[in-house]
Backbone:
């Protein structure tokens, strides 16, 4: 049974959720190295779901999804990225093989500009994760690659002329991408 949410209070590590019948529950999620935002979480048949505004639906709440939703809100609210240019779970095809890119940022001409890959906070961002993003980039040829586990975030800018990439100190603000 789905309870309609009307109250959500965030503390350091837990969410207190009540429905209209005042049935309340705690969900404990790890605090991330990202700004908090008011999440929309609900329970359906014993499974927790979180609203993904890009896909316009509730999706299964996993540690990786927790990171994705916080990171997308960080990009929109704090870095000025237009929500309309972001897409989650974008399918890529290589012959018969299907891959899923966690988040893509498009430019005004709807060309991919940035690939963003998320991992759960318990997953360390190692070379294997970078290799995964680089494989997607063989297909997409974007300007920026981003990886985050919610605790650590890495962003690199591609320099195709020199056949190299440069790690940036921070995730760029959206207007900086236009330069």
Residues:
């Amino acid at each position: 049974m789905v309870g309609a949410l009307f109250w959500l209070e965030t503390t350091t590590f837990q969410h207190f959720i009540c429905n209209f019948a005042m049935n309340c529950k705690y969900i404990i999620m790890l605090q991330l190295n990202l700004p908090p935002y008011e999440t929309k979480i609900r329970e359906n048949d014993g499974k927790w779901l979180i609203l993904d505004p890009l896909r316009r639906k509730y999706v299964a709440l996993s540690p990786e999804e927790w990171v994705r939703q916080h990171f997308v809100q960080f990009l929109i609210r704090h870095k000025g990225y237009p929500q309309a240019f972001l897409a989650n779970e974008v399918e890529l095809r290589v012959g018969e093989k299907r891959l899923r890119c966690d988040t893509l940022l498009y430019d005004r001409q709807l060309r991919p500009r940035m690939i963003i890959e998320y991992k759960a906070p318990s997953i360390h961002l190692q070379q294997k994760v970078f290799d995964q993003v680089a494989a997607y980039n063989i297909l997409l040829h974007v300007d920026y690659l981003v990886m985050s586990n919610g605790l650590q975030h890495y962003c690199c800018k591609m320099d195709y002329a020199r056949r190299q990439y440069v790690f940036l100190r921070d995730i760029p603000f959206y207007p900086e991408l236009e330069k």
About this structure: Residues 47 and 56 are 18 Å apart (CA to CA). The two ends are 50 Å apart (CA to CA).
